[in-house]
Model the fold of this input.
Amino acid sequence: MASSQGTSVRSRQVSAELRRLREEAGLTGAEVAETLGMSASKLSRIETGNRGLHLDDVAALLALYRVPELRRDEILALVTKSGDQGWWHSPGSGLPDLWKELIDFESRAIRIQNYELALVPGLLQTAEYAGAVISGINPAITEAELDTLVASRMARQALLRRRSLKYLAVVDETALHRVIGDGGVMRRQLRQLGTAAEHPNVTVRVVPLGAGANAGLRGPFVLMDFAGEPSLVHIENQGIGLFLEEPEDLADYRLALGGILDDALAPADSVELIFSVADRI
Done:
């Protein structure tokens, strides 16, 4: 597995565009490296987003590829802004670095597919459910820290209003029966989960208990796809998070998701089950 921690979203966008422009120009990486006097490994790191982007390097590549002035200026502006930070990076935000990196990528994704084994997905949680989850996982957290983390989770959910984003939430039925908070908190959470499926860009699927063993038992994960940028998988366990972008990793997780979906209920049946469980709590 290969991780890509803290990679700037804008840098990834520029890297993917530079690779596309080189291929469009009919040049190999070796030819470009030789012409510009840089190593082939350096060019590879630039095109994969595995090194910081410098204006002079990018400008030289754009000139070699004979990119029109307007487009060149747009790309260079992205390089300049690659260090710009969103609201989640603001001083005093109090957010863990892991959350900041995830929110960075979520803000650029055009499709997010989230499988959860034990919890309702974060982007569909109510504030009171999120608070109960966070405080339950970390009993030592202060009230101020808890308020900050819950507020940030609620702010993240604004991205679901982007119609250009397609969001798939796949939840094991186990998560529906695990009462977090109290009965009222859980009931309201399940009703919100079911209602979320009414949004045209949101799909909710439930893997029933009767499905037995499947790849989902290995744990939760998030698949993120971007416009013109490499896809990512995010996995998290006990506060340790990884962003995976190697083709073999992506293929493995897409295969796992496909198998999980084979066992999942259809969207309408999933929503019916969610409301049925809510009514019984």
Observations:
- The chain has two domains: 9-81, 94-280.
- The CA atoms of residues 3 and 244 lie 5 Å apart.
- The longest helix spans residues 247-263.
- Residues 9-81 form a domain with the 434 Repressor (Amino-terminal Domain) fold (CATH 1.10.260.40).
